[in-house]
Amino acid sequence: MRKQAAKKLPLAPDPRFNDKLVTRFVNNVMEQGKKSIAYKIFYDAVDKVSQMTGENGYEVWRKALANVTPGVEVRSRRIGGATFQIPAEVRPDRKISLSIKWLVRFAGERNGKSMADKLANEIVAASKGEGAAFKKKEDTHRMAEANKAFSHFRI
């Protein structure tokens, strides 16, 4: 076992928006270490979002991320031979991770020609409060609400 927790490596901000959150998002889009391709996909998607909505694509992306970010989730806990789903608040760092992962995952599952198209469509849908990533957040919240009775088992 490790003696102390691993240190978080600082992220470099992206070249276009100078935002570390964009770098974090691009790292999740990236496959097989091809970061330049991941940046191209993200920037193309943001440009397509601006064309589709007529607004700043970067701001729409920020709004989409905020809409998809969960507040509560359920965690499994085994008590007396039975497993309970216990609602718990999500840590700030995990909130961002989950929202990014959901946006990228459900964008990949969409129909479309390129990943940039799929990502752009998912971003626009999420910013309007629609789409699969937003539905995932709603389902997570609904599950936590349904299991509120077990919240006294909190760790």
Overview of this protein structure:
The chain has 155 residues and is mainly alpha-helical. It has one domain (20-69, 89-153): Ribosomal protein S7/S5 (Ribosomal Protein S7, Orthogonal Bundle), CATH 1.10.455. Helix content is 56%, strand content 10%. The chain has 6 helices and 2 strands, in the order αααββααα. It has helices spanning 20-29, 35-53, 57-68, 92-108, 115-127, 131-146, and strands at residues 72-79, 82-89. Strands 1-2 form a two-stranded antiparallel ribbon. Strand 1 (72-79) and strand 2 form a beta hairpin. Helix 2 packs across helix 3, helix 2 (35-53) crosses helix 5 and helix 3 crosses helix 5 (115-127). The longest helix is centred in the N-terminal third of the chain and has 19 residues, at 35-53. It is globular and about 55 Å long. The mean pLDDT is 92.
- What name does the CATH topology carry? Ribosomal Protein S7
- Which residue ranges are poorly predicted, with pLDDT under 50 across at least 5 consecutive positions? none
CATH class term: Mainly Alpha
Percentage of β-strand residues: 5-15%
Question: From the helix content, strand content and strand pairing, which structural class follows?
Answer: mainly alpha
Rg for CA atoms: 18 Å
Distance between the termini: 23 Å
- Number of distinct helices: 6
Number of strands: 2
- Please summarize the sheet with the most strands: 2 strands, antiparallel
Number of domains: 1
Main attributes?
single chain; 155 residues; mainly alpha; Ribosomal Protein S7; 56% helix; globular
